[in-house]
Predict the structure.
Amino acid sequence: MNVLQELPEAIIGMIRDFGDKNSVKTTILENHSCEDFFSFFFERHGRVRGYGAGVTPTKLWGSSSSRMYDLEKRLQEFEQKRLESEHKRIEADAELKGEVKHLKSMLEQQAIQMVEQRRHFEEQQASQMAEQRAHYDNMMMQMFSYITSQSAQSRKEGKMNSFVPDAVDHKGNHADRTKTGGWLSAIQILGIEICERFATMAIIVNLVTYLVGTMHLPSASASNFASTSGGTAYLLSLFGGIVADSFLGRYWMIAIAATIHAGGTCLLAISTSLPNLRPPPCNPTLSNKCVEANSLQMGIFTMALYLTNIGVGGIKSSVAGLGTDQFDQNDDKEKAQMAHFFSRFYFVISSGTLLAVTVLVYLQDQVGRSWAYGICSASMTLALLVFLLGTKRYRYKQRLGTPIVQILQVIVAAVKKRKVAYPSNDSALYEDLSQESRIYHTDKFRCLDKAAIITSKDSGIPNPWKLCTVTKVEKVKMLVKLLPIWATTIIFWTIHTQLAGFSVQQAATMDRSIGKFQIPPASLYAFFVVSIMTTLAIYDRLIMPLMKKYKRSQGLTNLQKVGLGLLFSILGMTAAALVEKRRLSVVRANRGTMTRSTTLPISAFFLLPQFILVGIGEAFILSGELAFFTNNAPKGMKAIATGLYLTTTSFGMYLSTILVTIIRNVTGRNGGHDWLSPRINDGRLDYFYWFLALLSLINLGFYIVCAIRFRPNSIENSPKMNGVVVDTPPKEETV
């Protein structure tokens, strides 16, 4: 800073005035600082700062010495003030430095405190995290249950993870939907079913002709043998379901059963190829003298056949369940795919049946049964290999205990407490609150609720044979509710059995030629299969889209499908009775010229209406009944429900055997006219068909009543239970 910027205006004015009068240049004011100026000024014009004696202001400045003195005085005062100001500034700087030092010290202390607080906070956090991790394993199951209950909302928000909640892979880890399940896995599983159906139907539809034509059994005996064998195969499916749900699991059940099935068909091929294992051909000169198969021949053939039946029972009990396990019901996309699975499943069954009754039946009649059965064994072996290759891609459902034991526990506990009074409040019934999945209490079949009543004898750890949870009781109730529908569908399979028995025998006596080509009698069953496939295709591609468009529904309910199936079976038996009446009239017209092998002058194509009508009925029964049992079965008992469905076929075949035996004993008593005589041309099969049609009509009335009264467990009526998954089947409309 220069002098002009440092000195007051009054002093600067005096200096300028002094300089003007004494010719002193004042440009130094602009070019030097105040300190330099005073040094220069007093050294040149004053007597201070060491100037010699005799040099006075008057000599130097003349008459202006007084003013110079005044200027000097003022400058000295200013200098004094400036020095005092500088001293104060120095003191202020020292004080400021002290304050800064004090503030710095305070900041350092605060920083130390903050570091200490942060260390303490981190130690607290580490301690809390350690405590949380100690409880982490116990919380995982609760978190998994919560995720499952919130899966619907998570899908809407796009936050659904890639794991299937209730399925695992082959290593037991949670199944990744991107790497497991889906249609590819389902197709590999369906390969087993198509080969099983391929072999089984080739055996069943042509079994009567083999027993009558080669083993020389009477017509009714051959029919009973065939129906009993088929009934046993389907009955074994119930036991297969129990073993699958309880011990082996569906995957291992299918693998073992397919191996047994392949071995059984291989033994059948050997049995039918060796001449010593079948009786000699009939003597053409003695039409009524044929040697029946002996006990050894029938024993080996029966053993091979029932070995195959064991395989059928194991496969059928689990293949549909394992197939549906490949689709997640909690995922909208996979749920839509599973809706089409049953239609595809029955299409595969029908495709295998069609190949069996055309290609294999022709090979049996024209080439040899041993070749046909050998092909069955080879195809099943190939399908088994393809099935095993998909092991890593399958989804597996964990077994939830032994269901048959659970059922027995509820029954035994309810019987033991049959005299115990019901509690006034249902909440007093025993329930295991630690279960992830529970079923709410219902009022039906209250006699079973006694298994869940807590008495004074039930202290301590509950004995499952004396005290059962409400969930376990409700599972048994859900199975019991299926029994009326189950019972009223048995008669359909009795009618179905006739197509592979008496209807094939009818065809064997009729004209089956198309030009020079002779159709095998059992191949008429192909029209039955085609009618099933056509009906399923029309319903899936035409009827369902129309109903969705105009009625805003997903199509017919499962119970409505079953009702339609029963109605068409009645129409089929009516058509069969009318055709058989006409066939017998042709028999009577040609009685004098007929021999054992005579072909009647009536086309076998008159039998098509009964095959087609019953086939349409079976299409609705197949797609409705299995879906009904599977959807309404409790969790963990799906394979038993599938086996329960298959036992309708079994009991239908057994019922056919019983009815045939009763009809023969009643109508053939005391020399009467046996409706089902050893030779079909001598009986009144049309009466038997009318009898089945009447029974079916009465059964249809009972079915309608049961279907109307059936009510599935509805989740809307369940109580609110926080954090608990309520296990209920999907709601379905009733008829």
In short: Residues 65-134 form the longest helix (70 residues).
